[in-house]
Amino acid sequence: MQDLNELLNIDKNLIWHPYSAMSSDLPIYHVDSANGVRLKLSNGQELIDGMSSWWSVIHGYNHPAMNLALEQQLKDMAHVMFGGLTHTPAIRLTEKIIDITPEPLNAVFYSDSGSVAVEVAMKMAIQYWHAKGKTKRQRFISLRSGYHGDTLGAMSVSDPETGIHSLFSGMLPKQIFIEQPQCRFGEPCTDNNIAALKKVLTEHGEHCAALIMEPIVQGAGGMWFYSADYLVKARKLCDEHNLLLIFDEIATGFGRTGKLFACEHADIVPDIMCIGKALTGGYLSLAATLTKQEIYMTIDRGEPGVFMHGPTFMGNPLACRAALTSICLLVESKWQENINRIQQYLEKGLAPCRNSPKVNDVRVLGGIGVVELKELVDMYTIVPKFVEAGVWIRPFGKLIYIMPPYIIDNDDLGTLTSAIVSLINDS
Ligand SMILES: *Cc1c(COP(=O)(O)O)cnc(C)c1O
Known about the structure:
The protein is an alpha/beta fold. It has two domains: 4-62 and 334-426, Aspartate Aminotransferase, domain 1; 77-331, Aspartate Aminotransferase, domain 2. The protein contains 13 helices and 16 strands. The strands form four sheets. It has a seven-stranded mixed β-sheet with strand order 4-12-11-10-7-5-6, sandwiched between helices. It has a four-stranded mixed β-sheet with strand order 1-2-3-15. A three-stranded antiparallel β-sheet has the order 13-14-16, with helices on one face. Helix 4 (88-100) packs parallel to helix 10 (317-332), helix 5 (114-131) packs across helix 9 and helix 11 (335-350) packs parallel to helix 13 (410-426). The chain is globular. The structure holds pyridoxal-5'-phosphate. Pyridoxal-5'-phosphate (PLP) binds at residues 113-115, 118, 147-149, 214, 219-220, 248, 250-251, 276-277.
């Protein structure tokens, strides 16, 4: 125990955690190991994971097939530079990604994180228009309550309030924001619902490179599920106004919403698409930006004749091997049945929350369950209560939400949802 306290002290004094104060005294838990859907804490306690480590660990922790593939890859090489060199894990992964993503996305740019995949998408759009002589097309249209990452370009298209744009106003490019789609998932999108997008396209379209959005599910910006019909209309408007459409599928990709990619709900294809998070099954950090032939050919023909990006760890072989293995596991599994089952259990399990006077809204889509409260969640008290109940759930703002690994069984799902129900009723 002495050792554990010492470790936690070092952590507290020297290490930042995501979006937290260095001097924070929020509780933090030391994980020893993880297996299946369970995190094992150093005090011996086991927690059922409701978060999939932020959407990524879709097959569960310590997966034998994933472990084996990485052990084999280690014997070949952990890393090699991608400039002037290539390797089979990147090539096979690329084939697989192109195979499972919609036509005509057929070129892949690898990077190390979702935020960078978004930066790359934005740079692709700008270079595309530059190559076509449209050098003024440098701004982006984006949705309020969106989240696209923490680097400056990605931040500039994320929600201005939750991203505190005012703080970075001297540095961030000013993008054009429209209200988040009001039409819920499953509902039609009325003329009224799409009016804001129509208006900015008419007013600002010619100075914009692209519309960027998270299709169907807005994630970290508010866990909001909106109409597929909105996407159909957005695609049509982008075509009419000659704008590129960028879909950020970093959270929604790889089956989470009930389709392999969320754009399939609307049966449309973006011009550029970002993937990440579940790409490697949560094993390593890898992301990718996909586009179509017309875009990369145009970029290649324009100034300066190359696409201007190239991360040091681009196409890391270990990460590519993990991604290839994870995608094979996914498409060979009965993931759709699993997601349908999770959706049903989440709906049933979270339904009692609808009656609580503290709850504003309950929404479930695919493997995502959200309870939106009327008041902000108190992180100091709620997280320890969840831990006491044997579950790992990390709310933010007014949102308590879960998106468990696809392999979770019904009993464990029940434990997750009843922990949420009793916490809301008892607090
Ligand atoms: C998480 C996320 C990102 C950023 O990915 P990182 O790997 O954290 O940089 C971007 N867009 C969406 C929709 C995300 O959910």
